[in-house]
């Protein structure tokens, strides 16, 4: 899935497609199958997101905020 800046019309069309997938049960079916298979798509996307530049910058910024680590707002073992 490619992420880009969308116009309002494009966003509205994308939301309509998503709603249709939910209403027809297509989303639920794919969600169940994905999880039965061990969530390979989800895990692959998570691995790719860790490599994204915004996540690398976020890691550096969080390291500068000791109160975040003290309160464990972000649990890397789960998220």
Characterize the structure shown.
The protein starts with 7 loop residues before the first helix and ends in an 8-residue tail after the last helix. With 79 residues, it is mostly helical. The chain contains five helices and no strands. It is 72% helix and 0% strand. The chain has two domains: 7-38, no CATH class; 44-79, no CATH class. The radius of gyration is 17 Å and the shape is extended.
What's the quick description here?
The chain is 72% helix and 0% strand. The protein is mainly alpha-helical.
In total, the number of domains comes to 2
Roughly how many Å is the radius of gyration? 17 Å
Average residue-wise pLDDT = 87
Structural class: mainly alpha
Described by strand count, sense and barrel closure, the largest sheet is: none
Question: What is the general shape?
Answer: extended
What is the tally of beta strands?
A: 0
Instruction: Give the low-confidence spans.
Output: none
Give the strand content. under 5%
Task: Using brief descriptors, characterize the structure shown.
79 residues, 5 helices
Annotate the secondary structure layout.
Elements: H1 8-24, H2 26-36, H3 40-51, H4 53-63, H5 66-71
